[in-house]
Amino acid sequence: MKKYAVIVAGGTGTRMGKDIPKQFLLLKGKPILYYTIHAFLKAYNDLEVILVLPLEYMDMGNEIIDAYFDKKRIKVIAGGETRFHSVKNGLSLIEEEGIVFVHDGVRCLVTADLIKRCYNEAKELGSAVPAIPCNDSVRLITVDGNRLIERNSIRLIQTPQTFHSKILIPAFSIDYKERFTDEANVVEAFGLPINLIEGEETNIKITRPIDLFIAEKIMEEKK
Known about the structure:
alpha/beta, Spore Coat Polysaccharide Biosynthesis Protein SpsA, Chain A, eight-stranded mixed sheet, two-stranded antiparallel sheet
């Protein structure tokens, strides 16, 4: 079955405190975005990447593609106002029915094992959203104060959030809502259930300077 990875790298990375978006920062001498794209292209030889970038940084993204990858397997498109709109832009380039991975451009430590497990589950059940247990105490803020939530019932959601195109593309035809912070929310609002699978503790999202340090240590341990 056809495979697409919509890699969403449309953010500006303000929490990093840098002059360029975090997806272009260097990790072990290469841009963070390099590792993310490489993981998907390496996982499947027949997979096509759709890279969603901020309009003003598309040239920088194309420079990474030219330097490291086969351009025939990668398409680039500008992002939108929100993640929802960026993903919707990426989905517009899908031409055939297949399995679609939607992945954060700065989750650069995703493994081939997780990608393949997502694919197999989505192919069978229509969706596969990786999640990991919550190890911290969690409290919900209410109008009356706050209250404890049983953490065993909490899961922290990761990407790649993976769906059959027959599910994902129609789901993104609905009107945008502020609560649509990921693809699972959109598909659920469309009236379809979400299938959670086991994620990976090392599949971190690089959003702060400390995350770059952690990513370096993870990469060193994997070697």
